[in-house]
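User: What would this chain look like folded?
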Amino acid sequence: MADWGPVLIGVALFVLLQPGLLFQIPGHSRTVELGSMKTNGKSIAFHTLLFFTLYAIVILALHVHIYTG
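Assistant: Here's the prediction, encoded as structure tokens.
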């Protein structure tokens, strides 16, 4: 049986946490910008750390598993 939980959680977090798509921390002119569709290096680094932190919490602490037959 294949465990699809980590794959689906990773894809969902990747899509939702792209800098500039929904929000961007830090923004160009403000601390938080919503839907700017622009990014910078600090924002990419912050969103990468946020992704891996949330991914680790969901996968390791909450034990999310989706099995297929």
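The beta strands are 2-3, 23-24, 33-34, 67-68. If you want, I can go into more detail on any region.
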